[in-house]
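Session log. Operator J.P. requested a structure for one protein chain; no other inputs attached. Running the standard single-chain path with token output.
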Amino acid sequence: MGDGHLPEGLEKGLEKIKKGQHAIVTLESKYAYGDEGSENPPVPKGCKVEFEVTINDVVPTYQLQLVDKLKAAEKRKDQVR
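Structure written below.
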């Protein structure tokens, strides 16, 4: 999460799901792939999208090793640029 590879709405939805939970996250077009759609995954323009997710494991950032924290911070910094 947080690396820009997931739609904004899915990232927000994943923040609310806890370890061990299974959920279906339904996103309106503007929170998924918008008016452009997507080639990978293939999603037509302006479509509502459903994601079925199960959270098996969660590692809180305070438990990450320093190297992993630095990698995550670098990814976030690159996204902001």
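Operator note: Strands lie at 22-27, 49-54.
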